């Protein structure tokens, strides 16, 4: 028997469960998603679950269970179950599904913090950090930057310089799995019952860091490689690991692209510190591109806002507009399709 409180079960979730028509059944948390089933931890232990038809149909794929979701299940056999309901999500990390224009994919849910993991070698990219941060803040999740492989040589001044506009917006940790004293502060920052998702490119050391935080090998990592230092996509699924007496860690496979999956205009203006300037623009609906009296452009010209940062802001804003416009179009199409099939059904009945 285990206590689900170490997996984050609390009063708020209990209240959410009461809304479900299946509140009399058992609850559990999805610890990993496989092709045809879900791994779930429940009071009775570990289970393999499948989805009931009513959960599967009529839901976009982004709303099917993901790692971190709390679900309600009907047990059968010793360690099997059917998922009959999903508790409403609160803090969820999404990204744009690659190869699509407006589909999103849920990476992890009921997440308190997200560790943006970057290694201090050639991988470090402030532009990638910004991108992750926007989507994390959009998901109502606290971002934390973890810079790994600090045992390797790196240019600290250059890193500090590029982080200037973000540094005070989130805590930053420098870590190395070879230096236990750098792991300890990170471990101490994690509270019991807190869920943390690890994101970052392949090969930056996400799984290695989780092993270091747990003090034992719970996840497979790639062999130490002297070659290019590029990632090899060692982890292949989003998987939950429990830290002894501490938090709940969700490892994710490194992804090549992490597209924005929300209309993030306001978050972008805040993160890129454009809002203060934008308030004094001549036009209330100023887009800060080429309008007269634009204080954002003025700030760029005066050197108060870095050109690279401004360009990055415009690029991500365009991406998020594009996503939400396509999503809106898609919803409209889906709605009219639903109307047509309703109409067809009615005609058939006559
Ligand atoms: N020098 C050094 N190497 C590290 C450190 N952390 C991880 N590595 C190495 O980096 C490589 C990649 O580590 P992983 O933990 O597999 O990386 P990952 O981010 O989980 O990669 P994916 O699962 O492919 O997304 C391995 O060879 C690790 O040994 C570190 O702090 N210092
Ligand atoms: Mg990994
Ligand atoms: Zn403006």
Write the SSE topology.
Blueprint (H helix, E strand, L loop, with lengths): L10 H9 L6 E8 L4 E5 L2 E7 L1 H4 L13 E7 L3 E7 L5 E5 L7 E6 L3 E7 L6 H13 L3 E7 L7 H7 L9 E3 L5 H9 L6 E5 L6 H9 L24 E4 L5 E4 L13 H7 L3 H4 L16 H7 L5 H43 L1
Parallel strand pairs: 3-5, 8-9, 8-11, 9-10, 11-13
Antiparallel strand pairs: 1-2, 1-4, 2-3, 4-5, 6-7, 12-13
The protein binds guanosine-5'-triphosphate, magnesium ion and zinc ion.
Please trace the helix and strand order, writing H or E for each element: HEEEHEEEEEHEHEHEHEEHHHH
Please give the CATH architecture of the largest domain: 3-Layer(aba) Sandwich
**Which fold name is given in CATH as the topology of the largest domain?**
Rossmann fold
Provide the CATH superfamily of the largest domain: P-loop containing nucleotide triphosphate hydrolases
**Global mean pLDDT:** 90
Trace the largest sheet across and list its strands: 10-9-8-11-13-12
Low-pLDDT residue intervals, each spanning 5 or more residues: none
Distance between the termini: 57 Å
Ligands bound, unique: guanosine-5'-triphosphate, magnesium ion, zinc ion
CATH class of the largest domain: Alpha Beta
Helix and strand composition category:
alpha/beta
The coarse overall form would be: flat
How many strands, which pairing sense, and closed or not: the largest β-sheet? 6 strands, mixed
Number of helices: 10
Helical fraction: 25-40%
Give the number of DSSP strands.
13
**Percentage of residues in DSSP E strands:** 15-25%
The total number of structural domains is 3
Q: Report Rg.
A: 22 Å
